[in-house]
Amino acid sequence: MKSAVSIRNLTKDFAVGMRGLKLRAVDDVSIEMPAGQVFGLLGPNGCGKSTTLKIALGLVQPTSGTTSILGDGAASPEARRRTGFLPEAPYFHRFLTGRELVRYCARLSGVGEDGLDDAVGRALELTAMSSAADRPVGTYSKGMLQRIGLAQAVVHGPELVILDEPTAGVDPVGAAAIGGMIAEMRSQGRTVVLCSHLLGQVEQVCDRIAIMDRGMVVLQGAVDEVLAGRDRHLIEVSSLTREAESAAREALARAGAVVEGVSRPRRTLEELFRELVTGSKDA
Amino acid sequence: MTMDALRRTHWIARITFLEAVRQRLFSFLLLLGAALAVSSVAFRFLNFGHGELKFVADFGFGILFLFGSLLAVVMTAQLLYAELDNRTALTLLAKPVSRSEFLLGKFLGVWAVLGVFIVLLCSILAGVLLTRAAEIAPVAEAAGRVPPSVNAAGLAIFALLQWMRLGIIAALTLFLAAGARTFLFSVVAGMLAVLGGQLQWLAQDLLTKPDVGFFQRSLAWFATRAVPNLQQFNIGDALVLESAGAPAGAAASALLAGSLHLLAFLFLACALFRRREI
Hints:
The complex is a heterodimer of chains A (283) and B (278).
Chain A: E1 3-16, E2 21-34, E3 38-42, H1 49-56, E4 64-69, E5 72-73, H2 77-81, E6 83-86, H3 98-108, H4 113-126, H5 142-154, E7 160-164, H6 172-187, E8 191-195, H7 199-205, E9 208-213, E10 216-222, H8 223-227, H9 242-254, H10 269-276
Chain B: H1 3-21, H2 24-39, H3 52-85, H4 88-93, H5 99-142, H6 152-179, H7 183-198, H8 200-208, H9 214-226, H10 236-240, H11 250-274
């Protein structure tokens, strides 16, 4: 399987204080992120996720180890030309309109004047920002800032899109919309690397995940594999009467299955919220 | 530098310029400088025995240098730290933009704003000087004295020299900010460097004295090379008010030396910024 991002034996120490004490932020991390998939990088705050991504993008120098993006060295202009990046809690020049910002980023990413308007239009459309594109960025809500950030990250049609906490501070409806955009990018054949605390969303959109803790990778693999480890199965039924339940238990027992318990599954608060709230105008 | 690199630098400079002209410090110093330049005629009784036009010109030159230096130091450091602190630099440097292009773009944007500042203040100063010269001339002629004159072309050369001087200060501040951890340190160190540049004649003076020790001589020699001589741009009086003009080649020599210092500081800033962790 071809790797979009390859991280091998990566270690990063930061010097802290006047005496230069070393703080190990990333400790011998090796991750392969396959091309064409959505890869989730998970972990608590301060576990080294963002530092790992910054090193992969050539923004921070590693203490040891190597990283490559789409086969090129992480810091090479060619690798960055094929990559889009949305940093955590993005902040943009407030006086620019959304369209001006995306045009600016497109130009910096090497989009020529010929295809500029089309590229900007497509990025704004993908992120559902076309209607607010001519408003100054300073007037945007958090959700809109994330979406315009996503637009600037994809405007040049990158093969790899790295999103650092794209749903931070966004309401559940907005977060679901961003999840939809990530799925859309995957369907277009792009690789997406997603750093997020929304585990439910990561489970829905990611093909593979790596979980980091204290600078180390503690688990990585395909989402289905890492979650399907237990010998437990769920059959969801409606209109279950006492008679029907007894009959089902008997039938399952005859087939050699052991029914451990019957309960009423609860909806998650997120599911309930998304059912009731269809979306604010600026989500 | 490739055409693509030049385009990217141009776009970063353009956005930096737009951001800089929106800053309150720029508007405040420009308005205050303009108000002081216009009102300098009212303070002409403080001319300490010199000619009125010389007082007005010196007052204007002083405002230009003081406010321009303050603007160059604070704005350069502020615009770089705003990009780093707000993490817009992360977004830009994750694109195929080299750190040198980013830094040069920031510098060119600031330098363009400083150019606007100088052109506007010099235009106001020219208006004040020419108006006052026209008012004084008949009185001087009636008294049998040579009427005063203002050399507009000389003022344009002076403006160009000041633009170079502020460019050196901006490049020097960029060099300090590229390596420093805090905005405050960059501003304080930048202002001290401006003061050092104004007092560079002390080191030159030391070099001419025969009874100076080896260590002091070496230090003075280093200071004359490393610290830009900002005083060499103080030839406004000769350029604007004296009919003979400035000594031949003084402006060209100042521009050439200034260009070398400016390029050297930009090169050092880029070298320092390349290793900086964003």
